[in-house]
Amino acid sequence: MSAPLLRVDDLQVQFFTEDGVVRAVDGISFDVREGELVGLVGESGAGKSVAVSAIMRLVESPGRIVGGHIEFKGETLIEVERGDDGESYRTDATIPDGELRERIRGREIAIIFQDPMESLNPVFTVGGQLREFIELNRDLSEEDAREEAVRMLREVGIPEAAARYDDYPHQFSGGMRQRVLIAMALACEPALIIADEPTTALDVTVEAQILDLVDELQERYDTSFVWVTHDMGVVAEICDRVNVMYLGEIVEQAPVDDLFYDTQHPYTEALLDSVPRPDETVEELNPIKGVMPEAINPPAGCRFHTRCPDAREACKTTNPDCRDVTDGVTEHRAACIKHDAFETTYEGSPPLETGSGGGFDVSLSGGETDD
Amino acid sequence: MATTHSDSETLGGESVEDFDESEQSVEARVGWRYTLAQVRKDPTAFAGFIIIAVASVVALVTTIDAVVFEYLAQYQVFAQFGVEKYWLAKTIWMSPTAEPAGTPTLLPPVGMENTFGQGTWAHPLGTDDRGRDILLRLIYGTRIAILVGVLATAIGLVGGMVIGAVSGYYGGWTDDVLMRLAETLYAIPFLVLVLAFIAAFGRSITFAMVGVGVASIPKFARLIRSRVVSVREDEYVEAAKAAGVRDRNIILRHVIPNSFAPVLVQATLQVGTAIIIIAGLSFLGFGIQPPTPSWGQMLSVSRNYMIQNPWFSVWPGLCILVTVVAFNMFGDGLRDALDPRLNN
């Protein structure tokens, strides 16, 4: 297996607020191979967006990358180590700010942001912005860049691209704007595109169109993607591999089919349970009970134990790392001590009365104990 | 706007005018044409706009006549055709600075009578203490008012924009240092600051203008900063950062254009203020020096002849009033046009 395009290793991002330190991303590791579409899934506040903005070092004060190592095409985008004095600092391997801006941002890695309504500058024309972006990152002359901009607009399915070149963003619909942003991201043929919930603000019809478009373009340009979303449906549709995040940690990593058919982590299971399914009629959806705890003061032990239907006493004390749980048959890792890969006292410890409280959940976990 | 049903719905040349007023989204309210159309609907703002436009044209023509022709007259090529300062004025009527022999001083406007004589069409608004035509001097005084008012505001605008944008964009100690400096400047009364500036650098209209400009920097800086602080959080700014755009270009191309609307309004109002201050300085003798005509200085001279010919004071006062009010009306209209919440 060739070296991955992007490798994120033990990334930690913290926000230093007045109320205390928020551990938004707490030691996550994942990789993206060439031509692969990797999903990053989780509830709001799980740290998905912070994690991807850390890849481009776009985390803003009071946030800071306090640990970890991100490698892209063999180059170190960031490496932070903790010194003897307890302060974290960047190592010399980290490429300097200017170089990151000139060579990486836009050219090698592009980001598509969440809100297409807000991601285009309202005072300039759509074409102008696209052209400027191409000029900046591809060293083309103004005319060539203009031609290229029109071509890209056509490529992402904007009808009459040349005529719409001089329109302002407010004259475009949400779906069209998202297409423009995709055109902008693709324009410089980057090796990696980070898509931060790009379809969340769109309705499902347009979402489907955009997903098709991305699929098609990905095939043609062979671009790798990191796709951030909270929508399991989107994950199933486009992702090759998936990372599930909960409260700043990755709880399960698996190829997309394994994740859906051989779910190994209770959180992922709960997440899948809460999705409405066309093939099943239920009285009521089964959401995950409770809300995600504050990352400022995460629960001790497994972070999900406060809401986990399978939680036991042992979960209060052990915070599991993400381990291979299928004996290496597939690349399937999960962070739950109920698996044999973890040598803990899970089997022997009594079930925990969790905030998830619903009789259904508890009896389900009780049933497993009897086995 | 019904947008998401089908992309083809929004096809074709939808220009700003094609929108139905009631359906217009907030974001549609950008662009010059829309703003001007909006101002046009507001009679007071439009009146202000017309007055400013006329005054600007007058200022431009008289500037050519006074400054450009004086410069050209240095060269033989032009001098042989008779090009000289106030060439245009002399050709049509008379020089605004000449003191014609035999013309009675302090004549009233046409149709009026005072101890000095009967008003005539030769001098529609009367003559001043040296027998010069008041109308002509008022016309040539427009140049100083508009030019100096606009330039002083431009100095304040550019200075304030740089300081405010840098301050708001970077935040932190940069912000603290720049804003505390601006506030220090703010704490000193405006006129005192300008007078101190003139005292330090010399008594001339240039320094008066620069002084007024510098003194208005804090006002613009604070206004811009307050906008930039919110605009810098917008997603297109982050998108630009992610695309590898330099900070300087982000500030110039993304942050400032999106922070500009309230500043434009403030600038329009500030021109009015600057005109008053400059006129006041001329009145005190710190601004424009005679014989160059300016409204403030005419007002200053005329106060000695208030009893003999009150009209002499009324005209320049009226000119200042009308111009300043015009700028204020236009500024208010512009604010309404640029602020979508005030519409509907």
From TrEMBL, chain A:
One of its GO terms (cellular component) is plasma membrane. Residues 347-371 are annotated as: Disordered. GO terms for molecular function: ABC-type nickel transporter activity; ATP binding; ATP hydrolysis activity. It catalyses: Ni(2+)(out) + ATP + H2O = Ni(2+)(in) + ADP + phosphate + H(+). Residues 6-272 form the ABC transporter domain. It is found in: Cell membrane. This is Nickel import system ATP-binding protein NikD. The lineage of its organism: Archaea, Methanobacteriati, Methanobacteriota, Stenosarchaea group, Halobacteria.
From TrEMBL, chain B:
GO terms for biological process: transmembrane transport. Residues 142-331 form the ABC transmembrane type-1 domain. Keywords: Cell membrane, Membrane, Transmembrane, Transmembrane helix, Transport. PROSITE patterns: ABC_TM1. Its main location: membrane. Residues 1-22 are annotated as: Disordered. It is a multi-pass membrane protein. CDD domains: TM_PBP2. GO terms for cellular component: plasma membrane. The chain crosses the membrane at residues 45-68, 144-170, 190-217, 263-288, 312-331. It is found in: Cell membrane. The keyword Membrane applies. Belongs to the binding-protein-dependent transport system permease family. This is ABC transmembrane type-1 domain-containing protein. It comes from Haloarcula mannanilytica.
